[in-house]
């Protein structure tokens, strides 16, 4: 796929590799962008690359295919729904992430 920018370039990752959820969250302003429509987010950023792990890059649009919420009331709701969608669709590579889901530690 041709990306609008290199996910590991200065514009994509601030000079370092950044992964998944963090890159998605940096595209919104917690103070100004909510409530936020999922469709509007995908329209603006859908073709942007998101690095999932050291060898996998997918588009924002691919991640949002698993998102069920149409509008996010706030940043916390955005984070929770994206985390859920990413875990359920194999886009969450963090070891031990399952320990933090469902209240078990």
Automatic annotation (TrEMBL):
It comes from the Archaea. Pfam families: DUF5785. This is Uncharacterized protein.
